[in-house]
Specification:
The protein is mostly helical. It contains 8 helices and no strands. Helix 1 runs antiparallel to helix 2.
Length: 214
């Protein structure tokens, strides 16, 4: 039997992931330069945020379609995703565009789900849900809406989008907690109290693409 060909570290999926990480400080600089009052810088920040968010979907698709999942991608992809979203939320709160409680709820949920994944990693993988994908889409739409220098009538829609994002974020977060507990209990029950050993490499179809939309 022919051994599986190793996946090169330098591949299209990882390049896009690194590009997203590089765009995070550029995005931050644009927001700071705009002070959320300078339209040109706000537009630049919004475009960077949208482009960087889009690479999250593209690199996941490339990794799945061409079997380019690597250990680096599994770690760097969710970090880049959460760094981008987290930076945007914190900056919007700093400039009084978004209540701090919204930022804290979303960030606690995002990093909490990541911690849950590591907690149950020895017992199984928590697959991404449809609700997680909806949550991600609403967060991106909401943040993009707040970043754009819109007329007051259109800007008033932003809080409703973000409210929907927060609601789905909380609901899916609770769902992940319940699923993590079930996976851990089922694993311990099946093994008679001993967890199953974690595989050396997770399936190529899941981690890099699914983690950001949890």
């Amino acid at each position: 039997m022919t051994a599986a060909k190793p996946v090169p570290l330098l591949n299209a999926a990882n390049v896009l992931t690194v590009a997203r990480m590089v765009l995070v400080p550029v995005f931050v600089l644009c927001v700071v330069a705009s002070r959320m009052t300078h339209d040109a810088w706000q537009i630049a920040a919004g475009l960077i945020f949208v482009v960087a968010s889009a690479t999250d979907y593209v690199d996941g698709w490339i990794a799945r379609a061409h079997n380019l999942v690597t250990s680096f991608g599994k770690v760097a992809d969710p970090i880049a995703d959460k760094a981008l979203t987290g930076a945007a939320l914190v900056l919007l709160s700093i400039y009084d565009r978004l209540p701090w409680w919204v930022t804290l709820v979303i960030l606690i949920r995002e990093w909490g789900v990541t911690a849950l994944r590591f907690w149950v990693l020895r017992h199984g993988v928590i697959a991404a849900s449809r609700g997680g994908k909806v949550k991600t889409a609403l967060q991106i739409l909401g943040i993009g809406w707040y970043l754009a220098p819109l007329p007051a009538a259109f800007a008033a829609v932003g809080p409703w989008i973000m409210f929907a994002a927060v609601a789905v974020t909380v609901v899916t977060g609770l769902d992940y907690v319940a699923r993590a507990i079930r996976i851990r209990r089922a694993s311990l029950s099946t093994a008679g109290g001993a967890p199953h050993p974690a595989p050396a490499e997770a399936p190529a179809v899941a981690p890099q693409a699914d983690e950001p939309v949890a």
